[in-house]
Amino acid sequence: MKSETKICQNCKKDFTIESEDFKFYEKIKVPPPTFCPECRRQRRLSWRNEKTLYKRTCDLCKNKFISMYHANVVFPVYCRECWYSDKWDIIKYSKEYDFSKSFFQQFKELATVVPRVGIWQRNVINCPYSNMCAESRNVYLSISVILGSENIFYSRTVDKSFNIFDSFNIRECENCYENIEGEKNYNSQHLLLSKNCIDSYFLVDCVNCSNCILSHNLRNKKFCIKNKQYSEEDYQKELEKLNLGNRKFREIAIKEFSDICKRAIYRYTNTFKSLNSIGNNLLNVKNCIECFDVYDSENCKYSYRTISIKDCMDTDLALSSELMYEYNTGAKNDSNLKFSFSAIEQVRDSEYTDSCMSCSNIFGCISLRNKDYAILNKTYSKEEYEGLVEKIKKHMNDVPYVDKKERIYKYGEYFPIELSRFAYNETAAQDYFPLTKEQIIEEGYGWFEPEIKHYEITIKGADIPEDIKEVDKKIISEILGCIHEEKCKHQCLKVFRITQDELQFYKKYNIPIPDICSNCRHYDKFAKLLPLKLWGRKCMKEGCQNEFETPYAPDRPEIVYCEKCYQAEVY
User: Fold this and answer.
1) Domain total for the chain?
2) Does any domain span residue 466?
3) Are the CB atoms for 114 and 421 separated by under 8 Å?
4) Which domain holds residue 471?
């Protein structure tokens, strides 16, 4: 089958379905999409609330806990212990399929009564204040922390790491602060796109370096400052002069580091050990096209934040799974799963599922566990199930769901954004595809008005001690004011506190107490990440005409080189 150009029914822009895409759709028996890849990702992410958390009561045990659901949602919300327990019967919440209504309307009705797990966690220990974490322990106000990570604070997308603060997109790091896009770094602060660096500060695109400061594009160096070689004795003297334990002096270094980042040479993509692949942050992949933050995977397209997956398309945040399509959040050991959200573990041969685990052959089910052959949470015989599913798919085409903006949802479309359990501005979609309140309402999506909270600030932001040496353990009992005072665009929390573990880390590694809240710090780092998008560009090396696809937009300030010119420049 030849490639085809279609018009996205959401953004009205052209997009291309390649011949290889059609082969995949035929293989998994779904029709081609009517939304473009970018709008499909926006739609999936609108179902994922990562960091908007609330205090509420479990509707089963009545204990207080931290939840991703506000107390005002219409469906029951259980704490993690209750949801995973045998204290309630999911079959109580089931429906007969009604051919007088559209499928998505019936799914919406089921969603108003089925209990949901209040916070998304899988096999974690001591992580009551963190969402979207798995197989980790001691995680605090962090997102997407997995693969045995431990002691992670105010961070996002952390794999196999220990003792990490305020860092994004890192793997196998230890004792690090403010690391972004890093791998196997140790005891280092303010590193960007650096790997295998030890005891270093303010580095961009450095590899195999130790005891280096304020430098760029270094390889296999020791005791360098501003790309200049020092003796070990002189290096230590200069490090002491920086006085990084004082916020005022650290901010001077941060400003200088910002200028250094503008002078650095950037590889057109952060991709390694990859064959026939296009995207960013790819490692050990094969045939992965327009993928981002993907590792150890093969034959994937339009996917984000996945590890060890195979033969998948439009799949976000999944682990050790295959044959996934239009899926988002937390898959582990899943197979042949389509149009689904949060298949927690071991879900197979299923479609349109939400928060299910250890199931196979289910369709339109919510919070189902250890069941087979179920539709809208009602179980059937194998023969009844297969016959009814075919009738439902035909019915979805004959009686499609039409949303408030007259977008049409037949079989083969992911859940409409307007059916999401979260308001648009509560979700990851707002981070990657930001909209104003007016735009959200105009599109027919949900908007949640942030609550006005009143706190008695005991130390104003301007009065937080500048030097970590001036701070004692009493600060743990204080309520600190964010210096932004809600005047920024970062969903400022206005106040924040310092934990015991946090204070110990700052003291040990000579880091001043922050004067902005965790949300403001989060968005400051998020702005440094590259978008999940590619642009066609030419190499910026004078005289080079090489072209490539890159996540660096043409209007960005970075100096971006092709692979050949980059290698010649930094090695």
Assistant:
1) 2
2) yes
3) no
4) 462-526
Cβ 177 vs Cβ 161: under 8 Å: no
**For the chain, percent of residues with pLDDT exceeding 90:** 96
Query: Is 548 inside any structural domain?
Result: yes
311 is written with which tokens?
């033969």
Regarding whether 547 and 511 lie in a shared domain, the answer is no
CA 503 from centre of chain: 27
| Statement to judge: residues 522 and 466 lie in one domain | yes
Distance of CA 98 to the CA centre of its chain: 36
Judge if 467 and 519 occupy the same domain. yes
User: 545 to each of 332, 364, 536, 540, 562, how far by Cα in Å?
Assistant: 43, 51, 12, 9, 9
**Cα(64)–Cα(356) distance, integer angstroms:** 24
One domain, residues 554 and 515: no
Is the model's pLDDT at 438 over the cut of 80? yes
d(CA 347, CA 353): 9
Same domain, 476 and 522: yes
Nearest to 199 by CA among 252, 236, 156: 236
Query: From the CB of residue 488, how many other CB atoms can be counted at a distance below 10 Å?
Result: 16
Q: Please say if the pLDDT value at position 87 is more than 90.
A: yes
Domain co-membership, 486 together with 514: yes
Instruction: Give the model confidence (pLDDT) of 350-368 as tens digits.
Output: 999 999 999 999 999 999 9
Residue 540: other Cβ atoms inside 10 A: 16
Taking CA atoms, 237 is separated from 108, 249, 364, in Å, by: 65, 15, 65
What number of residues does the chain have? Answer: 571
Whether 190 maps to a domain, the answer reads: no
- Residue 454 banded pLDDT, cuts 50, 70, 90: confident
* Residue 304, strand partner residues: 292, 316
Dist CA 527 CA 131 (whole Å) = 21
- The amino acid that residue 64 corresponds to is K
Same domain membership, residue 517 and residue 486: yes
Q: Are residues 516 and 485 in the same domain?
A: yes
Share of the chain above pLDDT 70, in %: 100
The phi-psi region of residue 434 (left if phi > 0; otherwise alpha if psi is between -120 and 50; otherwise beta) is beta
Whether 322 is in a domain gets the answer: no
pLDDT top residue among 153 and 571: 153
> What does pTM read for this prediction?
0.95
Q: pLDDT per residue over 455-506, tens digit each?
A: 889 999 999 999 999 999 999 999 999 999 888 888 899 999 999 999 999 9
Q: Mean pLDDT, the chain, as a whole number?
A: 96
